[in-house]
Every structure is written in structure tokens, then in C-alpha cells.
Amino acid sequence: MNDVTATGLRGEEMGRRLRAARQARQLTLRELAQRLRVSPSMISQIETGRASPSVSTLYAIANELDVSLDELLFNDRRPPAPPSDDGRTTRAATAEQLLQRSDSRRQIRLASGVVWERLTPTSEPDTEFLYVTYEVGGASSAEHEFQRHPGHEWGLVMEGRLEVRIGFDEYVLGPGDSISFDSTLPHRLANVGDAPVHAVWFVLGRTGGGQHADDDLHSSSPVGGGRR
Fold first, then answer.
1. pLDDT in tens, 54-108
2. Which of 66, 87, 150, 213 is the most exposed place for a label (fewest CB within 10 A)?
């Protein structure tokens, strides 16, 4: 698989794209860090490929810089369709555009024990279709911290036990269980079992505008309610 990690050349490439997006918006490193309410050194380490963001930090950065995750992680956008002879836009579908083989997925390993594998061969506008692994102890954010972002998401757990906290409610999903929820609600996903969680996740409308990164990183209200 094409692995994108926090170390080595690929991590540096991701960092360079982050720095370019930040500079294009005329934000200093310190200004971006203040908006995200993280330390400037964290942003610096991500930009230089010496550290990997957590899921919540990654979403917050993408929201603040108004870039897609594919653009930030893979520098990959679906190419525009060539015009036809009559001026209409057409697309000649090829196997490379339609088919994603399991052994060649684009992949990124995040700092919080989460691995994303893209299930589409190219970037899809405003859509994330992912095979997600939560390693033992892995979570989308630190304990008592939640993320929220524009869009709606659907998830299907294939293996393991995944705790999904949405607002004040907790749900534990096992193999075959699925969930659907509004991504603007504060939420946190975590592996609560003793084996990796494997799931398929779909997010639609993440770039639709809305939540600010400050809330994504530091919504720390205690979560109540029982597990379901």
C-alpha cells in the first residue's frame, strides 16, 4: 500500500502541502496554532514531517485552511473531464478511474493509533470513503475531547469493538453493527476492545462550511449516558 506516515519523505510531503496551504491564506505558523489552540511547535513538527496529527487535529487543520483531506494528505484531485466535440463535458471511464485494488490503496497512519485507507482510486469531491483501522487503544481524539465538522457520516464495523460517543450518548458497535450521524455533533470514536477495529466509513459534505477548529479540538464536556 502507498503508506503516508509522519516520518520519511511522505510525511515531509504532507507537511509541505500544509505549509503551502497555510501560507496561501497568509497565516503565520503562530496564527494557525492560536486558531487551533495548539502549540506552534506542534504545527511546526507536522509541517516538517517530524510528527503526525491525530484525527481531530487533522480535521481541524483542514477546516481552518478550507482544504480537502485528499488535497492535504495526497495532493490528489479528480482531473476535470475533457470537453466533447459539441462542447459538453464528458468523462471516459477507465479501470484506473473506476477500480481500487486492495493492495494499492492510499494510506495514512495518524498519531492517535488510527489508519485510514482510501477506497476510491482518485479524490471524490466532498466525499470520503475509507477503510479505517483503530489499533488497540486507538481513538479519534484524546479522552474527553471531541471533534465536529460539517457533513454526515455512516460507518460499518467489520471486526472489533468500537465506542462511538455522540454528544452525551455512548454506543458500542460490534461486527456487523452500523451507525449514521450528523458530523456537526461533537463525537469521538475509540477502540474499546483487545483487538484492532476494522470498519468502513463514509463521510459526505465535510467541506460544506460550518464548525470552527477551536470547537473540534477542545470540546471537553463530560460525556454522560450509558453504553448502548
1. 787 888 888 888 877 777 776 665 555 555 555 555 555 677 778 999 998 888 8
2. 87
DSSP 102: G
CB 117 within 8 A of CB 106: yes
Cell output for 120: 476510491
Q: Classify each residue of 108-127 as buried b or exposed e, where b means 16 or more C-beta atoms within 10 Å of its C-beta.
A: bbbbbbbbbbbbbbbbbeeb
The pTM score is 0.70
Q: Give the single-character DSSP code of 103.
A: G
C-alpha–C-alpha distance, residues 47 and 65, integer Å: 14
d(CA 223, CA 26): 37
